[in-house]
Amino acid sequence: MPKINLKTQAYNTIRQKIVTCEYAPGTFLNEELLTSELGLSRTPIRDALSRLEQEGLIEIKPKKGILVMPLSINTINMIFEVRQLYEPYILLNYGTSLSIQQLKKFYSIFSSSKTNTSCSENHNYFYELDTEFHNFIISTCPNPYIRQNYNMIQTQAERFRYMTGNVSTKRLDDTFQEHLEIICACLKDDWTAAAEKMTYHLEQSKRSTFELIFNNLSSQDLTL
Protein backbone atom coordinates (compact mmCIF):
# COMPACT_ATOMS: atom_id res chain seq x y z
CA MET A 1 0.00 0.00 0.00
CA PRO A 2 1.46 3.43 -0.92
CA LYS A 3 2.60 5.61 1.96
CA ILE A 4 0.00 8.24 1.24
CA ASN A 5 -2.73 5.67 1.78
CA LEU A 6 -1.19 4.53 5.04
CA LYS A 7 -1.10 8.13 6.26
CA THR A 8 -4.72 8.62 5.29
CA GLN A 9 -5.69 5.33 6.91
CA ALA A 10 -3.96 6.32 10.17
CA TYR A 11 -5.57 9.76 10.14
CA ASN A 12 -9.08 8.50 9.41
CA THR A 13 -8.90 5.75 12.03
CA ILE A 14 -7.53 7.88 14.86
CA ARG A 15 -9.87 10.76 14.03
CA GLN A 16 -12.90 8.44 14.08
CA LYS A 17 -11.89 7.01 17.45
CA ILE A 18 -11.58 10.55 18.84
CA VAL A 19 -14.88 11.73 17.36
CA THR A 20 -16.78 8.70 18.66
CA CYS A 21 -15.05 9.12 22.05
CA GLU A 22 -13.49 5.66 21.92
CA TYR A 23 -10.45 7.77 22.75
CA ALA A 24 -12.18 9.77 25.47
CA PRO A 25 -11.66 13.53 25.94
CA GLY A 26 -8.92 14.28 28.46
CA THR A 27 -7.14 10.93 28.12
CA PHE A 28 -3.54 10.40 27.04
CA LEU A 29 -2.41 8.26 24.11
CA ASN A 30 1.07 7.26 23.04
CA GLU A 31 2.71 6.26 19.78
CA GLU A 32 3.39 2.70 20.96
CA LEU A 33 -0.29 2.14 21.69
CA LEU A 34 -1.35 3.57 18.34
CA THR A 35 1.19 1.67 16.25
CA SER A 36 0.22 -1.56 17.98
CA GLU A 37 -3.53 -0.99 17.79
CA LEU A 38 -3.57 0.19 14.19
CA GLY A 39 -0.86 -2.16 12.93
CA LEU A 40 1.04 0.70 11.31
CA SER A 41 4.54 2.10 11.55
CA ARG A 42 5.46 5.33 13.33
CA THR A 43 5.72 7.43 10.14
CA PRO A 44 2.02 7.42 9.13
CA ILE A 45 1.00 7.63 12.80
CA ARG A 46 3.12 10.76 13.33
CA ASP A 47 1.79 12.32 10.15
CA ALA A 48 -1.78 11.68 11.30
CA LEU A 49 -1.08 13.10 14.75
CA SER A 50 0.35 16.26 13.23
CA ARG A 51 -2.85 16.80 11.21
CA LEU A 52 -5.07 16.07 14.20
CA GLU A 53 -3.17 18.55 16.35
CA GLN A 54 -3.66 21.24 13.71
CA GLU A 55 -7.40 20.49 13.82
CA GLY A 56 -7.49 20.95 17.58
CA LEU A 57 -8.40 17.34 18.39
CA ILE A 58 -5.19 16.48 20.23
CA GLU A 59 -2.24 18.19 21.85
CA ILE A 60 1.18 16.58 21.70
CA LYS A 61 2.85 17.12 25.08
CA PRO A 62 6.59 16.37 25.18
CA LYS A 63 7.50 13.63 27.69
CA LYS A 64 3.84 13.20 28.63
CA GLY A 65 2.07 11.82 25.61
CA ILE A 66 -0.75 12.75 23.28
CA LEU A 67 -3.66 14.46 25.00
CA VAL A 68 -7.11 14.00 23.49
CA MET A 69 -8.45 17.53 23.89
CA PRO A 70 -11.13 17.89 26.57
CA LEU A 71 -14.59 18.92 25.42
CA SER A 72 -15.68 21.60 27.86
CA ILE A 73 -18.62 23.92 28.29
CA ASN A 74 -16.34 26.70 27.08
CA THR A 75 -15.61 24.71 23.92
CA ILE A 76 -19.32 24.30 23.17
CA ASN A 77 -19.83 28.03 23.75
CA MET A 78 -17.05 28.84 21.27
CA ILE A 79 -18.51 26.44 18.69
CA PHE A 80 -21.82 28.30 18.73
CA GLU A 81 -20.07 31.65 18.67
CA VAL A 82 -18.38 30.71 15.40
CA ARG A 83 -21.57 29.25 13.94
CA GLN A 84 -23.53 32.39 14.80
CA LEU A 85 -20.89 34.46 13.02
CA TYR A 86 -20.67 32.30 9.89
CA GLU A 87 -24.04 30.76 9.04
CA PRO A 88 -26.29 33.85 8.99
CA TYR A 89 -23.51 35.74 7.20
CA ILE A 90 -23.30 33.11 4.47
CA LEU A 91 -27.05 33.14 3.91
CA LEU A 92 -27.09 36.92 3.73
CA ASN A 93 -24.13 37.22 1.36
CA TYR A 94 -24.06 33.99 -0.67
CA GLY A 95 -27.59 32.60 -0.33
CA THR A 96 -28.37 33.30 -3.98
CA SER A 97 -25.94 30.51 -4.91
CA LEU A 98 -27.90 27.84 -3.03
CA SER A 99 -29.44 25.14 -5.20
CA ILE A 100 -33.22 25.62 -5.42
CA GLN A 101 -33.61 21.92 -6.15
CA GLN A 102 -31.67 21.00 -3.01
CA LEU A 103 -33.64 23.48 -0.91
CA LYS A 104 -36.88 21.89 -2.09
CA LYS A 105 -35.46 18.45 -1.31
CA PHE A 106 -34.68 19.51 2.26
CA TYR A 107 -38.14 21.06 2.57
CA SER A 108 -39.67 17.73 1.58
CA ILE A 109 -37.50 15.86 4.07
CA PHE A 110 -38.12 18.13 7.06
CA SER A 111 -41.86 18.41 6.43
CA SER A 112 -42.35 14.64 6.23
CA SER A 113 -43.87 12.87 9.21
CA LYS A 114 -41.94 9.75 8.20
CA THR A 115 -38.67 11.62 8.65
CA ASN A 116 -39.78 12.82 12.07
CA THR A 117 -40.63 9.28 13.16
CA SER A 118 -37.36 7.90 11.82
CA CYS A 119 -35.36 10.57 13.63
CA SER A 120 -37.24 9.95 16.89
CA GLU A 121 -36.32 6.28 16.66
CA ASN A 122 -32.76 6.86 15.45
CA HIS A 123 -31.04 9.97 16.77
CA ASN A 124 -27.98 9.34 14.61
CA TYR A 125 -30.21 9.78 11.56
CA PHE A 126 -31.40 13.12 12.96
CA TYR A 127 -27.81 14.27 13.49
CA GLU A 128 -26.87 13.21 9.96
CA LEU A 129 -29.75 15.19 8.46
CA ASP A 130 -28.98 18.22 10.60
CA THR A 131 -25.29 18.12 9.65
CA GLU A 132 -26.13 17.65 5.97
CA PHE A 133 -28.44 20.67 5.97
CA HIS A 134 -25.96 23.01 7.62
CA ASN A 135 -23.06 21.76 5.51
CA PHE A 136 -25.17 22.43 2.42
CA ILE A 137 -25.41 26.07 3.45
CA ILE A 138 -21.73 26.33 4.32
CA SER A 139 -20.71 24.73 1.01
CA THR A 140 -22.13 27.66 -0.94
CA CYS A 141 -19.54 29.99 0.59
CA PRO A 142 -16.64 30.58 -1.86
CA ASN A 143 -14.24 31.47 0.97
CA PRO A 144 -12.14 28.36 1.71
CA TYR A 145 -10.95 29.72 5.06
CA ILE A 146 -14.51 29.96 6.35
CA ARG A 147 -15.26 26.43 5.15
CA GLN A 148 -12.08 25.08 6.75
CA ASN A 149 -12.79 26.71 10.11
CA TYR A 150 -16.37 25.48 10.02
CA ASN A 151 -15.23 21.91 9.39
CA MET A 152 -13.13 22.09 12.54
CA ILE A 153 -16.02 23.11 14.76
CA GLN A 154 -18.28 20.53 13.14
CA THR A 155 -15.86 17.84 14.25
CA GLN A 156 -16.02 19.10 17.83
CA ALA A 157 -19.81 19.18 17.64
CA GLU A 158 -19.79 15.54 16.50
CA ARG A 159 -17.74 14.60 19.57
CA PHE A 160 -20.27 16.23 21.86
CA ARG A 161 -23.13 14.38 20.17
CA TYR A 162 -21.43 11.04 20.73
CA MET A 163 -20.75 11.94 24.36
CA THR A 164 -24.36 12.76 25.16
CA GLY A 165 -26.12 10.52 22.64
CA ASN A 166 -29.35 12.30 23.35
CA VAL A 167 -31.86 14.77 21.94
CA SER A 168 -35.31 15.61 23.22
CA THR A 169 -38.35 14.88 21.05
CA LYS A 170 -39.51 18.47 21.45
CA ARG A 171 -36.14 19.80 20.28
CA LEU A 172 -36.28 17.47 17.29
CA ASP A 173 -39.69 18.86 16.30
CA ASP A 174 -38.56 22.44 16.88
CA THR A 175 -35.41 21.92 14.84
CA PHE A 176 -37.39 20.65 11.87
CA GLN A 177 -39.74 23.64 12.07
CA GLU A 178 -36.82 26.08 12.32
CA HIS A 179 -35.16 24.45 9.32
CA LEU A 180 -38.38 24.78 7.34
CA GLU A 181 -38.64 28.48 8.19
CA ILE A 182 -35.06 29.03 6.99
CA ILE A 183 -35.77 27.14 3.78
CA CYS A 184 -39.00 29.05 3.10
CA ALA A 185 -37.18 32.37 3.45
CA CYS A 186 -34.49 31.13 1.05
CA LEU A 187 -37.07 30.02 -1.53
CA LYS A 188 -38.61 33.51 -1.34
CA ASP A 189 -35.17 35.09 -1.91
CA ASP A 190 -35.58 36.90 1.40
CA TRP A 191 -32.01 36.57 2.60
CA THR A 192 -32.40 39.00 5.50
CA ALA A 193 -35.21 36.85 6.88
CA ALA A 194 -33.22 33.66 6.18
CA ALA A 195 -30.26 35.03 8.17
CA GLU A 196 -32.55 36.07 11.02
CA LYS A 197 -34.22 32.64 11.06
CA MET A 198 -30.80 31.00 11.15
CA THR A 199 -29.71 33.22 14.04
CA TYR A 200 -32.82 32.24 15.97
CA HIS A 201 -32.29 28.55 15.17
CA LEU A 202 -28.71 28.65 16.44
CA GLU A 203 -29.75 30.50 19.60
CA GLN A 204 -32.34 27.81 20.33
CA SER A 205 -29.87 25.03 19.56
CA LYS A 206 -27.34 26.59 21.90
CA ARG A 207 -29.92 26.89 24.68
CA SER A 208 -30.96 23.26 24.21
CA THR A 209 -27.33 22.13 24.13
CA PHE A 210 -26.53 23.81 27.43
CA GLU A 211 -29.61 22.29 29.02
CA LEU A 212 -28.31 18.91 27.89
CA ILE A 213 -24.85 19.71 29.24
CA PHE A 214 -26.14 20.59 32.69
CA ASN A 215 -28.18 17.39 32.72
CA ASN A 216 -24.98 15.46 32.06
CA LEU A 217 -22.58 17.20 34.41
CA SER A 218 -22.09 13.95 36.30
CA SER A 219 -20.24 12.61 33.27
CA GLN A 220 -16.50 12.53 33.86
CA ASP A 221 -15.87 13.44 30.22
CA LEU A 222 -17.53 16.84 30.49
CA THR A 223 -15.61 19.57 32.28
CA LEU A 224 -16.35 23.13 33.31
Kindly summarize this structure in a few lines.
The chain is mainly α and 224 residues long. It is 72% helix and 6% strand. Helix 4 crosses helix 8 (144-164), helix 6 packs across helix 7 and helix 9 runs antiparallel to helix 10.
SSE order and pairing:
Blueprint: H1 3-19, E1 28-29, H2 31-38, H3 42-54, E2 58-61, E3 65-68, E4 71-72, H4 73-94, H5 100-110, H6 113-121, H7 123-139, H8 144-164, H9 169-187, H10 191-215, E5 222-223
Parallel strand pairs: 4-5
Antiparallel strand pairs: 1-3, 2-3
Task: Summarize model confidence as the mean pLDDT.
Answer: 87
Strand adjacency order, main sheet = 1-3-2
* Count of strand segments: 5
Task: Tell me the span between the first and last alpha carbons.
Answer: 44 Å
The shape is elongated
The helix count comes to 10
Low-confidence stretches: 218-224
The radius of gyration computed from the alpha-carbon positions, rounded to a whole number of angstroms, is 19 Å
Portion of residues within helices: over 70%
Query: The biggest beta sheet, please?
Result: 3 strands, antiparallel
Structural class: mainly alpha
User: What percent strand?
Assistant: 5-15%
H/E element sequence: HEHHEEEHHHHHHHE
